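dumping these here so i dont lose them again. two proteins, back to back, each one seq then structure tokens. dont judge the mess
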Amino acid sequence: MENGKWKMGNQRPMTNDQGLRTKDQGPIRVMIVDDHHMVRKGLATFLKTQADLELVGEASGGEEAVRLCQQLQPDVVLMDLVMPGMDGAAATRAIREHRPEIQVIALTSFMERELVEAALEAGAIGYLLKNVSPDELANAIRAAHAGRPTLAPEAAQALVQGEKLERLAHAIVNAPPDASTLPALLREHVPGMFSNCGIEIRIFPDQTLLHHPADGPSAADPMWKWLRTTSQTHHFLPGATLPWGGKRGGAGATLAVVPIIGIESKQPVGGICVWRHRDLDTIADLLPVAKSLAAQISSTLHSAQVYAQTLAHETVARELAMAGQIQASFLPDELPDVAGWQLAATLHPARETSGDFYDFILLPDGRLGIVIADVADKGMGAALYMALSRTLIRTYATEYLTRPDLVFNAANRRILMDARAGLFVTVFYGILDPGSGTLHYCNAGHHPPYLLRADDREPIQELRRTGMALGVIEDATWEQATVRLAPGDMLVLYTDGITDAEDGTGSFFGRERLRETVRAHVGCSAQDMQDALIAEVHEFMGETPQFDDITLVIVKEVL
């Protein structure tokens, strides 16, 4: 990013005054990267129709693309982004690092902001959707070869909408914490995100936050009643049967509806309705920004609710008691039931409130987000900081579904904007695919969890830090790492309340004692492992008062 704008690729000298190769210089050498055979076949057929373009190779994945680029040295690579193994952004970065003269055009079916940003940050000179016309694709290849960027209008719109969402987020952070100015902020920022659209935002049962245009029609009451029953986004074209009854008129507007999900209740607390009278087939393109807007509103309402509760405390004792109840409600009421896996978790606060927390976040396609964290302080300040951190991590986890590094980037920025207490929080966040056992994770300065292998062929593996704690510096970054759990393997996550537990002589429980206890119970269930560790810690402490919060999460794949 340069001066607030995305810089696409590295420009190279043009080959002639028009930036195109002459006949004597030969055709532009093109390589195709896509994990779908039919897509590669279609692109190969297209390239054969262009006299100045030559197909020199094909790859079905990122690793193969990097290897072939070293061998074939194409001029331009058409790169899919969403592929198993090494994704397109990672492959683009690797290619550009080793062969900066090779230009990469991201050619994908997706236009989510995070994908666009990731591709451009990796060095792609262009970003196109797969529904691009043959002429547009050919011209983009020629432009890339000449060092000129090409960005699909839909991708540019995603970036612009993302910037507008960021401006709204900044305005909300600087607004009164009771959300009293939220309707005015929505009127100022939201209409520009949905050009040529009408939009209505309501909080149930009957509060209207935004109605734009002011003199425009309102969404039907039966639609709002139905929206209370669904947690999914929907869009309806003219003529579609509506789940709340009737049909869209044949010449009417297209309609998109997005529920606003309560952070604690996990139920719809309001909704967003967007309608458009032209460009009818593009209404689905508005869903990502509408979902992000819904998450912002939900977070704002939740923060206002916490603020109002805090103001209502009449005494310090009542404040502490209420804070403890709120914190307890942040923890999962029950652990997710994941087929083939055992989960166990516990939190023992040292005071009425805690700076520790853990969370399990149900994600699409059966994935499970696993969080354990520790605020570097104690008391009410740490408890409030914990509430803010937990809310932001959960919110961004549902926005960046497979990228824990992007979750940390977004949460870190918001933490630094929202909180000025000089605190920070260490966090481990992993995204588990229960079907494959794959765990993508980032460790933000947290004590390394232990991975125990059932076959006992390897020593205990530590999932070490991949970046610093959240809330320290704004431009911090985190690397994403991956491990795979096999049947019988167990993951032990903990906070320093375990390793720093003291006995009557002032000795610490320590990591080595923790490792020995874990190793001694490697074949037991997740719950038995948790019980054994907690019992060992309390036996070690004896009558010594607990000084720090003790939090433990166990994840095991069943044999």
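---- next one ----
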Amino acid sequence: MAIPDEDVARVRAATDLADLVGEHTALKRVGRRFVGLCPFHGERSPSFSVNAEEGLYYCFGCQARGDAISFVRATEGCDFVEAVERLAARAGLAVRDDADPGAAAERGRRQQLMEVVSAAAAFYHQRLLEHPDAGRARHYLRSRGYDGDVVRRFGIGFAPAGYDELVKALRRPASLMRAAGLAHEGSRGRLVDTLRERVVFPISDPAGRPIALGGRVLPPELRTSTYDPGPKYRNSPESPIYQKRRTLYGLNWAKAEVARVGEVVVCEGYTDVIGFFSAGVPLAVATCGTSLTEEHLRLLGRFAKRVILAFDADKAGQRAAARLYEWERRHELELAVAELPAGSDPGELSRQDPAALAAAVQNAKPFLGFRVERALSEADLSTPEGRVRALDAALSAIGEHPNALIRDQYLLLVADRTRQDTERLRPLLEEARRAAERRARDEASASVRRSAPTQRQVHEPKGQPEPVKGARGQSARRPTGAPVASRPDADGGAPPVSEGEPPPYEDDGRYEDEPGELDLDGAPVGVFAPRSDRPAKESRAAAGESTRASGRPTSDGGPGREAPGGPRGRVEGSRAGQAVAEGPRPGRDALLLAIHRPSEVAQLLDLACFIDPVQRAAFSALGEAAQLHEAIDAADPAAAELLARLAASGGAEDLDPTGTVLQLVAAAGQAVLRELQSEARLTADSDRERFAATNEAVGWLSRELMTMTSLGGSEAGSAAALEAAGRLVAWLAQRQRLGESPGLEG
């Protein structure tokens, strides 16, 4: 599916980011921004900032960043297209599909299915709350510790015993009822309800929209019908909106807290999830009648990196946990196991001893530690035979771990518990490691042989790039009396600029105060736009890079979690991986003004003023883009990270534009002065003509810097300082076009 750019822009413009984020964390207005606790990592002091005007967020703690679309992707675990569709539905907008004429019909069918499932869930819920025939179900739920608040919070319902109560209530087409799994044809050809005389649990997607229903049959003593009720639990069949291998019950309720604390608890059933919530652990999700799959873990990895398994403490639950080891390694998750008392499940334990259930989660053991402990506890360590069996099982588990240091730590533990010499066990561990590698290769080969295209993979096709019109300045005039900046091999052209791949970022909102085309003639100090003769995004267009909303490269980790990287990246140990330093203060303040108060500095800033490479790249992106979103999208990763960070920063209202620009120009001039002085020393004896020209430039530059920095304190002094800065900026811009500014490649 390919959503047109204009539809994506309309959705972004119609979304109030502060309201959207406010559904996940409390925000407080501070000036023009909103701040609050980050929903993506645990913290005590608020470091999460929302710029509602630009529609951008940034966390100064974990460096998560993005816009409304990336926020929905990160919090609800969906792809770009689905995030746009959800925001469109939230805003009451319709989006189009340029790629597939049949996609609109498919989306319409999905919407019909979701609407009828939602209507069924509402019918069953109201039936439980109000109808007399649901009295037995209410009695059963109260016996399980579920009061009215729990029933309403989780939308629990009751399916009556009648054959077609739901069919008659909804009055939807038979084909739609069958496709949604709500009804089927009976022996006499009539349409009958699928769920009858059952407690109903609505199953929702991460956004909270019902997509399926699960029903638990009432105990025999509370049933009135005589027909065979079938299995204890019955879920809706799979449909275009519901696939068991991708769905987790309770994720819609748990996701905010899961994202905040960075961990999630996985259990086996609806009542287990409700039990964890009742015990004060609102982090639980459950599979829907199937084993935990790799797709489940991939989905959970978008919300948290620590997954705690809380299966029933029996052999089946332990064996299920053991199968997850390879997935932990593949998806870079940290798996742990919550050990529950033998014979209990979370639902029961939440009623009998909720503190013990919470403690089991808090004291969850690392996945490998659980497996090793299980191997040791299942053998009789008082006998040689028992110790050998424990060693075989424990070393087999340890040998599967990819980290040699962790393997060594557990080897020491096993050697101590089995009374063996560590060095004698090392060859056995190495043999176990090789055996684990062989098993992994064999399993991978078998998986390839078994694999078939059983699921449709949705690709977001790339569209054609479109040049973005930014504010373009004309060539600067050389100030009267200024020396000509040149280089021996200059041919009058600007050095080629190499552009790399764009960051995996999906912003293209509008920059509100586009300065337009400004003529430098008569202007005191250049223009807002950087001097550049190449068209915006020209090299990206040549490379076939797409600027279409549905085709931008993304990261599996989800937007807002990309590692910004770049030459100035700083490792922070955060979820984003790297944080970009803001660079020298004058450049940082100038960029802050360019983002938050652009009209006040449009005539005062120039690319030649920025000597820091990341700040220069950020300002260049601002000048070439019509909008802030496009600037972030087009910038290299380090500059994009810096722009996103400053977009969510405060303090711009306290800055003096004139003073900031003078400091910036002075820093740039002093950097060039040092370069020229060094060049003069090197050419004093070898090239007298070049030495003279350089010495002339040093003298002129020194005088201009002295004039610019010594004036001030009055309106006339400030005006004179600005005039000096204007002459200096125009001269620096000429040097830049010739490739002579410090820091420029070539």
